[in-house]
Write a structure and sequence with these properties.
Shape of chain B: globular
Order of helices and strands of chain A: EEEEEEEEEEE
Mean pLDDT of chain A: 94
Largest sheet of chain A: 7 strands, mixed
Low-confidence stretches of chain A: none
Radius of gyration of chain A: 13 Å
Structural class of chain B: mainly beta
Largest sheet of chain B: 6 strands, mixed
Strand content of chain A: over 45%
Low-confidence stretches of chain B: none
Strand content of chain B: over 45%
Radius of gyration of chain B: 13 Å
Order of helices and strands of chain B: EEEEEEEEE
Structural class of chain A: mainly beta
Helix content of chain A: under 10%
Distance between the termini of chain A: 39 Å
Oligomer: heterodimer
Shape of chain A: globular
Helix content of chain B: under 10%
Largest interface: A-B, 24 and 27 residues
Number of strands of chain B: 9
Chain lengths: 120, 110
């Protein structure tokens, strides 16, 4: 059974960098025909896609966040990461990693999510 | 920043039928398939319906989905207490080149 698990600091200071890692178990990122992405959910609000990648190197981002986001992958560790910089209080959210199909909003496996609070 | 519009809330008594709408545009629902997610309190969203009307294994058949033009709907027949959750629609958007989600609907079982 495929499992995804987010990890990283639960609090980040304004203007600094939010860094999260998603560890995939029960399956491999390399050679998969799926895309892997990050989604966030602000308190009391809806879901917002941040960006996704394909293991071969193709990466694409939400245009509203693109200037601040970097997604990278470490296939040797079966992990992928999210960096968002600089952050503001508006970036306080639960961050999820998930797997999805190409050109489809079909997210079939999700991590449990991790709350990141931006505060000094 | 949600591109797809849903009613904020819906409710019904046990056994009733509840329908949730999802309105989009030609660049998303109008040209792509719609998926639905159920989010129980304090948990990650779970895929509830894909490709407009297909249920993943384990999803009860009282959940059904449909799409027409630039709108989609999720229906829950025989509402049960465990169906109390937030529901989100989602679709790929060709103009934005990424997935977009609905504003979410909170279903309450009275």
């Amino acid at each position: 059974q495929l499992q995804l698990q987010e990890s990283g600091p639960g609090q980040v200071k304004p203007s600094e960098t939010l860094s999260l890692t998603c560890t995939v178990s029960g399956g491999s990122i390399r050679g998969s025909s799926f895309y892997w992405g990050w989604i966030r959910q602000t308190p009391g609000k809806g879901l917002e896609w941040i960006g996704s990648f394909y293991y071969s190197g193709s990466t694409f981002y939400n245009a509203s966040l693109e200037s601040r986001v970097t997604i990278s992958v470490d296939t040797s560790k079966n992990q992928f990461s999210l960096k968002l910089s600089p952050v503001t209080a508006a970036d306080t959210a639960v961050y999820y990693c998930a797997r999805h199909s190409y050109k489809a909003a079909l997210f079939d496996y999700w991590g449990q999510g991790t709350l990141v609070t931006v505060s000094s | 920043q949600s591109v797809l519009t849903q009613p904020p809330s819906a409710s019904g008594t046990p056994g009733q039928r509840v329908t949730i709408s999802c309105s989009g545009s030609s660049s998303n629902i109008g040209s792509k398939t719609v998926n639905w997610y159920q989010q129980l309190p304090r948990t990650a969203p779970k895929l509830l319906m894909y490709s407009n009307n297909q249920r993943p294994s384990g999803v009860p058949d009282r959940f059904s989905g449909s799409k027409s033009g630039t709108s989609a709907s999720l229906a829950i027949s025989g509402l049960q207490s465990e169906d109390e959750a937030d529901y989100y629609c989602a679709a790929w958007d060709d103009s934005l080149n990424g997935p977009v989600f609905g504003t979410g609907t909170k279903v309450t079982v009275l």
